[in-house]
Specification:
Blueprint: H1 5-13, H2 20-27, H3 35-42, H4 47-65, E1 68-76, H5 104-115, E2 121-125, H6 130-133, H7 135-147, E3 149-150, E4 153-154, E5 157-161, H8 167-175, E6 181-182, H9 190-196, H10 205-209, H11 211-217, E7 223-226, H12 234-252, E8 258-260, H13 271-274, H14 282-295, E9 300-303, H15 309-316, E10 322-324, H16 351-360, E11 364-366, H17 370-373, H18 378-385, H19 391-409, H20 412-428, H21 432-446
Parallel strand pairs: 1-2, 1-10, 1-11, 2-5, 5-6, 6-7, 7-8, 8-9, 9-10
Antiparallel strand pairs: 3-4
């Protein structure tokens, strides 16, 4: 059994007796936490203890990821869907939604719009519709994305968030050259899952839960999991995510590359989205992110533009390592159409403004895709990530991609500001040889070369 609800409830109802301070101290060894330890931290309600959890999360985030924040943008290709999920505007029964499926030419226009903002990573998202999101059409879409280039603009990595596939179809998806395959269970609580998914293919809890098994067996060795917080108790969902992560790690020797933490936001024609059954407060949401960072220190945590700019800024230090920027959740939202969105977004800043704010807060924007393209994925990635060594490669690669962004998309003020940050980060590199190599590659970028990495 991948998810043992009784065990999760036992940990929450009869928490372990270890003092929270001791658990926090153990978390700083960056070896992760057990389910009982994680439950104990999730149950913390003392302000001083929560403050200590936040402090530990900051320390671990800095140690493994430094000040880097990886940027990406979602690309929705269709809002046609066979499912009737009660929290989603795309649900089949929603007669208010304007339906739209992008042609390959329209997808090309969307990609060009994202490239004009400097994006190098796209997350492909689609409703569950056989014609518009079946493997045959997905192959064409991914080929179109990779094949669309404009001047300096190009998409170097397509990650995919689509409905679970069969093993043969996952093998076909692998051959398209994707990066991470993402899929959210939405809620791991079986009875809640049943109520929230009254009809459609998504009503099959087990087929969705075992999608990562099929993806990994098909050779897609970077997978991302997540839950939609607000459908059930966030503490249960967090422990279920950890249980799922532990299962994948023990079974395939590859834990999830990322964990996503979306909260339910209002959506037209979606009854649960407008009145979440288990709303998560901002404080509990921050605690959730911080505890996940302690529990699975090697896993990237993804935060979307569902949240406000101010809250996103706070969460950067508590464990978030990847963020979307200038997102649209409707097909055609970047180049033309502004209708038919999946849910409400609260961070409407442009990509350039997000980058300026990231710098103002002391962080480093990154568009890096080096690990994917060098085959440093799956077990190879985990071997570096788990002990915290991945940062030795990620930091210089982040500097190179940010320098490239400044050269191709930055205004004069941003170039000056960004160069100061780059110099600061190079000085902080521990290896003199790596400093020299990074400066050499930056000089090559300034002379016109592109797409350099370690």
């Amino acid at each position: 059994m991948i998810i043992n609800e009784k065990k999760i409830n036992d940990h929450l109802n009869i928490p372990c007796s270890d003092p929270i301070e001791k658990i926090i101290e153990r978390s700083l060894e960056i070896k992760g936490l057990t389910l009982p330890e994680t439950a104990r931290l999730l149950l913390a309600d003392d302000k001083k203890q929560i403050k200590k959890i936040f402090s530990a999360a900051r320390a671990i985030k800095e140690r493994i990821y430094g000040r880097r924040l990886v940027l990406f943008a979602p690309l929705y290709t269709t809002n046609e869907c066979q499912n009737n999920c009660l929290y989603c505007a795309f649900r089949k029964a929603n007669r208010k939604l304007k339906r739209k499926s992008l042609s390959l030419e329209e997808i090309r226009e969307e990609v060009l719009a994202l490239e004009s903002q400097g994006h190098k990573r796209i997350l492909l998202v689609a409703g569950e519709d056989p014609a518009q999101a079946g493997i045959g059409h997905l192959e064409k879409i991914i080929a179109t994305i990779y094949g669309t280039k404009s001047g300096r603009g190009e998409i170097r990595r397509v990650n995919v968030n689509v409905a679970p596939l069969s093993l043969p179809d996952f093998r076909r998806l692998k051959r398209t050259g994707i990066g991470t395959y993402q899929l959210f269970q939405e809620t791991y609580h079986r009875e809640t899952y049943r109520r929230c998914h009254p009809s459609g293919p998504k009503a099959d809890y087990e087929f969705r839960l075992t999608a990562m098994d099929r993806a990994l067996k098909a050779g897609i060795n970077d997978v991302g999991i997540g839950a939609l917080f607000g459908l059930y108790d966030y503490k249960f969902e967090a422990l279920a995510l950890l249980m799922h992560a532990r299962y994948l790690d023990s079974t395939y020797n590859v834990g999830p590359h990322t964990i996503s933490v979306p909260r339910i936001e209002p959506a037209e024609g979606a009854p649960l989205a407008n009145r979440p059954p288990y709303p998560v407060s901002d404080l509990d949401f921050k605690k959730l992110v911080a505890v996940l960072r302690l529990a699975v220190p090697y896993t990237g945590i993804i935060l979307s533009t569902r949240e406000t700019a101010d809250l996103r800024n706070e969460l950067f230090s508590l464990g978030v390592s990847q963020i979307s920027a200038a997102s649209r959740t409707n097909p055609g939202g970047y180049s033309a159409d502004q209708t038919g969105a999946q849910f409400t977004l609260y961070d409407s800043r442009s990509t350039a403004q997000v980058i300026k704010d990231i710098l103002r807060l002391g962080y480093l924007p990154s568009f890096c895709t080096a690990c994917y393209r060098l085959g440093r994925t799956g077990e190879d990635f985990m071997d570096l990530a788990k002990p915290g060594s991945i940062g030795n490669l990620c930091l210089p690669n982040s500097l190179l991609t940010f320098k490239e962004y400044l050269l191709d998309y930055g205004d004069q003020q941003l170039k000056i500001q960004g160069q100061k940050v780059i110099e600061r980060e190079i000085r902080g590199l521990k290896s003199s040889r790596l400093k020299d190599l990074t400066r050499k590659k930056i000089a090559e970028l300034e002379s016109g070369k592109r797409d350099l990495f370690f």
